[in-house]
Amino acid sequence: MLEHIKKHRYKILCIAPLLIFLLIFTFLPIAQVIILSFQPAAKTDSVTPPGSGDNFTLAHYQDLFFQKDFRQAFFNTVFIAFLSLALELSLGLSFALLLCKNSKIIRFLRPLFILPLAIPTTVVGVMMSYLFTASGWLNRIFLNLRIIDSPIYWMSGGVKSLLMIALADCWKVTPLVMLILLAGIQSIDTSLYKAARIDGAGSFYIFKRITLPLLLPSITAAVIIRGIDAFRIFALPLILMGQNLKVIGTFAYLEYSEFNNPYVSAASAVLLLIMILSAVLFYIKVVGKKGIVPA
Amino acid sequence: MKKRIRAAIFLITILILILVFLFPLYLVLKISLSKPQDIFVEKPTYLIKNFTFEHFKSVLLSGETFLNPLKKSLLTGILASILGLLVSIPAAYSISKFNYKLKYALILVIFMTRMIPEISIALPITISFIKIGLFDNILGLTLAHLIRILPVSCFILVGVFSGFPDELERQARIDGASASKAFIKVVLPLSLGGITVAGIFSFLLSWDEFIYASYLTLARPTMPIKMYYYISRGDIFSSATYAVIITIPVLILTFALQKYIKPDFLSGAIKG
Amino acid sequence: MPTKIYKNLKFNFILLITFLIFYFLGCQPTEKTRTLNITMSLGEEEWRVLREEIFPLFEKEHEIKINSYQIEAGQLATKLQALLEAGRSEIDLFAQDNMELSRLINQDLVLDLSVYQSRIPDEVLANLIDSCKFDGQLMFMPFRPNVQIIYYNQDAFKKYNLIPPKTWDELLNVAKTFKEKEEQGKVLLKAFGGNPTATQIYEFILQAGGDPYMFDDEGCVKAFTFLKELWPYVSEESRRAKWDTTNQILAEQQAYLAQNWPFGVIILVQEYNLPFIKTYSGWSGPRGEFHVIGGDVFGIPRNTPKKELALEFIQFMQSKEVQEILVSKLGWPSIRQDAYAKVSGWQEPYYQAVTTALKKGVFRKNVTWWPAYVKYISEAFREIVIGEAQVELTLKKYKEKLKKDKSLYK
Fold this sequence. Notes:
The complex is a heterotrimer of chains A (about 300), B (about 270) and C (about 400). Helix content of chain A is about 75%, strand content about 0%. Chain A has helices at about 1-5, 10-40, 60-65, 70-100, 105-120, 120-130, 135-145, 160-185, 190-200, 205-230, 235-240, 250-255, 260-285. Mean pLDDT of chain A is about 80; it is low at about 45-55. Chain B folds into 2 domains: about 1-50, no CATH class; about 65-270, MetI-like fold, CATH 1.10.3720.10. In chain B, about 75% of the residues lie in helices and about 0% in strands. The two termini of chain B are about 45 Å apart. The relative contact order of chain B is 0.13. Chain C is built from 16 helices and 11 strands. The chains are: A mainly alpha (about 300), B mainly alpha (about 270), C alpha/beta (about 400). The interface of A and C includes residues 10, 13, 46 and 155 of A.
């Protein structure tokens, strides 16, 4: 073991600042939150069942499972995250395929697609509220194009509102997915395409059998980077729907700041952490080596 | 001839996509350039009816109340990207030398820091920062931003250095250079593109950050905070103008550094 | 090997030095002059008047410098808590929305000011002082009372020969007329949730003779039944209507009648120059006209070292001289009975609406569980009024929920 460290001590020194910083400023606070979620509430109340250990209790987690609010927030989070990911991947892939040539015009137009990434989330929230209100632009355009004949009430809760938030989130982030997939596409050896064409394969076949499998590592990268953030969504639901549509992020925030319950807030944050971690690990397991290392 | 038509259709498709995709941005731009009476009708027009620069004038000429947040956001962003690069470049380079299993594991550990809602750890971190005297100054905010930036910057740079052909390095070592010399003279110059991408992403993450900015500032807010001030007062013209102004530096950055942004760098730790 | 380590150590050392340089650059130099750090949440014009005309008077008299900062009402408690737990004092005094006080009490962030009650000038209205008390203890000091007024679109009302409603029946009638003539509702209710919705319902319940905190007494039931009846005729924008979006909705003429705080006057009339926006005090329900009094109060953070100075500043702000400036320049109604001042020209009719509404003003009883109340009354609203659930049963359900949650608060 010690020879290992000696051999790599140069590298370890290089990584040290990063790890120390993250240790102090992220792992420690996270540990604090985890510990808080297991501590009994500061004063006697109906939350702590009698007879539980002095410094450890699962009462807050039990509390969460019984709260309809939290279950709803959990569902909303998962729904929005999956929907948003699906949208980002399909849109990102389409854009990447369209923009993968390196002609001058394409290179000029590409930064325009990157713009949404640059917009602060608060601004995105405001922009989306211009689009999605009952008299907003989306309804106006749809009405003008006769796609619908009466305005859709995006903000009235339910699937429509979930869709709205997923759309708003994916709008800002699609450029990132596009860039990751673009990298993947550009690294595919073009001779593979040529060979397939010579053998008489059509575009769709090439896409399905060559492009997609070779893109799996990039897709994995995109899924991991974006997936983690998609579950943590916070600002957009708060701005667009306030307390009417909770996700775990906003639930944790409101429990702490409004409803005077830091323990439940911590517990919900920990649950989110566990959820994301297991999702990521599960995905990696399913995708396997194929999906991570390029062929 | 057929090729020309195909190219034209292609171009038109892309242009339509841009129009649709960037429509929300256009809306904000429109508000910042329109007169109030054109916005406050039941069905505002699609195009800008009466151009006016009054909103921009009033914001840009408002003196300190505009310049201070701008200064603070810019300085914090630049400092965050520089510090972020200084820390993540050596770290990423070292990580990229490990075998892929260890590499992936390390990256995942670093990313674990992003798996908890920001808002849950923001308060404990703020308290620690205040205790060591980092309240309401640029360094404190920069460090807080680094919490978000370092994992992403690391990820990009690991990809950059992983994709760097080993032969060049090995050649330099054979020619007698030490490891760090080889790094500085050979790897760094050729990876400048990827490093630029990491730097731009770092700047972006700092530029639009809101939560830590609101926790850690008092007298000196940043641009997003200032803009939120106008939003919460329902002043849509000032907030739209600020929104446009916030977007501009990023646009400039992206266009100017276009040639460096080869998307390769975002494939991350994937390349073997 | 050693050179490699040495080189790397050198690099890390340089990193550390750079860090330390910036650290010391970042630390504030100690101020030579005495200062007082104040935070408030105000509009730009309000800040201008305070900073240019009021603060200098205090600064000169006491030979200190006032540092004033803007903090949004929702972010003050977090900052105070962070500073308190870190053991630092950066804020000596704050003005806070009187609907955002419970967190300050629940997390024990403010000084108990009961012993200083005698310092409040006699001319300050008694019910204002009561509104600063929690559980009988004076935790805050009066600063400015505020009340919502009704904004209406003069042109639209004239077009359909309507007058601004003064009773619930008239309100229903106006809503029905607009819906009929324009095929969409033009009366705005604030249905987004949170404080805007809760305050609105609170008023309706009071106007029906109920006790809002009872949740399901006769008055509450009557109020909810009426709102349920009114809902089909209101503007669809109501779902996103809260205090900041209401101004926009009025400006874009998505609604012709809406209730909001007077700050909308500055934005709609002065800034946007919309000639059709008029105001009046509001309507009365079956048991009378009641409006919830909001506004700002002063508080002192628990760990401030400048308590005496802060108290003197509060007294200064409550003086006749300052209150008269606030009335004349900002159209703020005064906390003193003896502040007579002329409101400047164009603000006059709007100021009239505010003072009339204030005459029928009622303070909410201060409870530490106000956020829980807000949450459940908003949910009850959405379930009953929008979701058309049964009134009594649903109210009873939320009453039980609220009872359970009360134990979480002080």
